[in-house]
Design goal:
Layout (H helix, E strand, L loop, with lengths): L2 E7 L2 H9 L4 E7 L2 H9 L5 E5 L7 H9 L3 E5 L3 H9 L3 E3 L5 H19 L31 H10 L3 E6 L7 H14 L4 E6 L6 H4 L8 H10 L4 H8 L1 E5 L2 E6 L13 H11 L5 E6 L20 H9 L2 E7 L4 H15 L5 E8 L1 H4 L3 H12 L5 E6 L2 H10 L3 H4 L4 H9 L14 H12 L1
Parallel strand pairs: 1-2, 1-3, 3-4, 4-5, 6-10, 6-11, 7-9, 7-10, 11-12, 12-13
Antiparallel strand pairs: 8-9
Helix pairs in contact: 7-18, 9-11, 11-12
InterPro entries: CobQ/CobB/MinD/ParA_Nub-bd_dom (IPR002586), P-loop_NTPase (IPR027417), ParA/MinD_ATPase (IPR050625)
Keywords: ATP-binding, Nucleotide-binding
GO cellular component, one term: cytoplasmic side of plasma membrane
């Protein structure tokens, strides 16, 4: 196949070497910098990019942009640490001392694999990896990285055991963060190794629910470290806070303290972090923002950041999406429209519909029946998976004490309903502990 190649860096010598082969690989541009290569890739003028320059100038965002444009990226690197970092970003590595024909062959091979790689994300979690199989609309694709064989892909997917659960809900405070926090806490109480990630780019609230300081955005640190090819053990040590709830530990990546910092969370970076964490954990719960639509004014610019891209990509790729809607005259129509939009835009999403804050005062004397009938008549073609009762006192007590229901209200009806989301298991028996001190101390420190 014919391959149009751009060369970046100290590549004059390599341009001549490849051209002297008179092969199917043709050098069409010697780029001054990597943004020029990205522009060529976006314009469809090149099929592959050969990197030979200073590696300090190569960052994850530029590599992601090249790969997203369907361009193969090959680097000539001798240093083992640099090779590991670039390989984790999806770059094919060759030794600078390799002969030109070997480099040309690698360029052709990676170009043929570039398009599937541009659509990939983190690898799928096999059904037999620590949990019972559950029906899903599809299996998540495994990312074929440059230079990997089919066997190495299979090994990577088999070792990625953690289930990724996204908690999403339409606008209007449906209670998705409450569900996410308590879902993660209950899973941890059942003996699983769980991480809770706050990826809401509009209004992060996990830190507030758990009485944590949110000035250091754990999710931002997680993304930056993932772009540096940091292993999972270091990611958990440096980006995740260990929170003790009812005698068990929950790992938490706090969200952005200011919504204006949303460009710090790139979808490629967060996916890379989740892919790495899956090897060390049993469950990853992600709280995402409500809006999922893309900015049409920026759709022509593939390198421009999209505020909703993180939520949209996670909803698309997660093993399970718990969609939470409010049970009232405003929340039900919003849920109908939002779920219909998701199924239209992302039909492969593993979506489960739940209505929260179910109460007779807002819907009628038989709220679950009336919601189900309304959904059957006006809703999209997906069944309601369950209902969560309104228990304002229990939720308020947990929020005030900066903890989860398993500590503050272990016998609450809301907690029992959330446990059912995990599967058919008995409720872990934990003592009732209301830790007022952590919440009050947190407010006191903030005032100071």
């Amino acid at each position: 196949m014919r391959v149009s190649l751009a060369v970046w860096g100290d590549g004059d010598d390599w341009t001549q070497r490849i051209e002297q082969l008179h092969s199917d690989v043709t050098v069409v541009r010697q780029c001054v910098d990597l943004p020029e290569a990205v522009s060529l890739a976006d314009s469809g003028l090149i099929d592959a990019t050969l990197l030979t320059g200073s590696w300090e100038d190569v960052d994850a965002e530029l590599i992601d942009a090249l790969i997203a444009a369907g361009t193969a990226v090959i680097a000539l690197v001798a240093d083992a640490d640099v090779s590991a970092r670039l390989r984790s970003l999806g770059v094919a590595i060759e030794n600078p001392l390799a002969d030109p024909q070997s480099v040309a062959d690698l360029i052709e091979l990676q170009t043929m694999a570039a398009s599937p790689r541009a659509r990939s994300s983190f690898p799928s979690r096999p059904d037999n990896a620590g949990r019972s199989a559950r029906p899903s609309h599809r299996s998540m694709p495994s990312a074929e990285q440059p230079g990997e064989t089919e066997d190495s892909q299979y090994d990577d997917a088999a070792s990625a055991r953690a289930e990724v659960v996204v908690v999403w809900g339409p606008q209007g405070a449906p209670g998705k963060t409450t569900i996410a926090v308590n879902f993660a806490a209950e899973a941890a109480a059942q003996g699983r190794r769980v991480a809770l990630i706050d990826a809401d780019t509009y209004g992060a609230a996990v830190a507030s629910h758990l009485g944590l300081f949110d000035e250091a955005a754990g999710v931002g640190i997680l993304c930056r470290l993932a772009d540096e090819a940091t292993p999972a053990s270091r990611l958990m040590e440096r980006a995740l806070v260990r929170v003790s709830l009812a005698g068990v530990n929950l790992l938490v990546a706090t969200g952005l303290p200011r919504s204006s910092r949303w460009p710090e969370i790139r979808p490629q970076s967060l996916m890379r972090a989740i892919k790495e964490l899956r090897h060390e954990l049993d469950l990853i719960v992600v709280d995402v923002a409500s809006p999922l639509e893309m900015d049409e004014d920026l759709s022509f610019d593939t390198t421009a950041p999209q505020r909703n891209a993180v939520a949209a990509e996670l909803v698309k790729q997660a093993d399970r999406v718990i969609a939470v809607g409010r049970s009232d005259a405003v929340g039900i129509p919003r849920m109908v429209k939002a779920v219909d939009e998701i199924l239209t835009r992302t039909p492969e999403a593993n979506l489960e519909v739940y209505f929260n804050k179910v109460r007779a005062a807002a819907v009628g004397p038989t709220p679950e029946t009336q919601i189900a009938e309304s959904w059957e008549r006006f809703g999209p073609k997906i069944s309601i998976s369950g209902f969560l009762p309104f228990d304002g006192h229990a939720a308020d007590t947990a929020l005030l004490s900066g903890t989860a229901l398993i500590e503050s209200a272990p016998k609450s009806s809301l907690r029992k309903a959330i446990v059912k989301l995990l599967g058919d298991r008995d409720l872990p028996q934990r003592p009732k502990i209301v830790r007022q001190s952590r919440r009050l101390a947190t407010f006191g420190r903030r005032k100071g």
